[in-house]
Amino acid sequence: MNIDILTLFPEMFNSIMGESIIGRARNKGIIKINPINIRDFSKNKHNRVDDYPYGGGSGMVLMNQPLFDALKSITQNRKNSRIVYLTPKGKTYNQKIAKVLSNEENLVLLCGHYEGIDQRIIDEWVTDEISIGDYVLTGGELPAMVLIDSIARLIPGVLGKSESFIDESFYSGLLEYPHYTRPSNYKGRKVPEILLSGNHKLIDEWRTKESIRITIERRPDLIAKLFKRDDISMKEKVKLKKMINEVIKISNSKV
Ligand code: ADE
To answer: What is this structure's pTM?
Structure first.
């Protein structure tokens, strides 16, 4: 996958996106991350990239000319590039959108600054407007990195075997079960006995039930969503329902 990022701060990407799993995927050539400085396209003699908003008011708007030229140059050899503008006004990002975007060959991420960009650039070029949540950041760079990280880990070969995720079952829509490592007794707090048993069937069952318990407790909305998903079979849903009932029974018996 090829990801072009239009930004005023390209250095932000090379440090953070050069480490760990994403850095390794870049080195392996599975993903290409190209931060492009919008300022390099400015034809203004002072390299300016912002201008005053029509109608007055506070704040500045990113100038059309450098953005237009940058977008034209990126897309000239590539038809059908998806162009995502990061903005608090966009559709709220989630795992489903990450999955859709992970199937793209070319992705352009446009990071706004100041008050944003001219509406006509959005109308002409942008295919998706995405927000990473209901809060306002100073620019689109951190949201772009959130997208890249979450998309990259879904691309085959990016995660190692031990890091890989389970998809296409209800496990992918549940919160994670708790993890433990050595020592088995940490300041008097013991690891659940079952995890030391070596019985993998029972361990898997315990983990699934813990996932269900935590999801019911913290995000009951996610449980409801699982039953609406059409990539989960009826058989899986029946199994899930049975496990939910068992978890509820156990927690009721503890009260
Ligand atoms: N730019 C500023 N805030 C943002 C947000 N919450 N999501 C996406 N882009 C943004």
So the answer is: 0.93
Amino acid at 130: I
In short, whether 143's Cβ falls inside 6 Å of ligand 1 is: yes
Q: How far is the CA of 167 from the centre of ligand 1 (A)?
A: 28
β-bridge partners, 157: none
CB of 135 closer than 6 angstroms to any ligand 1 atom: yes
172 lies in some domain? no
Give per-residue pLDDT as tens, 82-120: 999 999 999 999 999 999 999 999 999 999 988 899 999
* Closest C-alpha to 212, from 242, 184, 186, 175: 175
Number of domains in the chain: 2
Cis bond before residue 143 (omega within 30° of 0): no
Q: Please indicate whether residue 86, judged by its CB atom, sits closer than 6 Å to ligand 1.
A: yes
Same domain, 124 and 28: yes
Cβ(140) to ligand 1 under 6 A?
yes
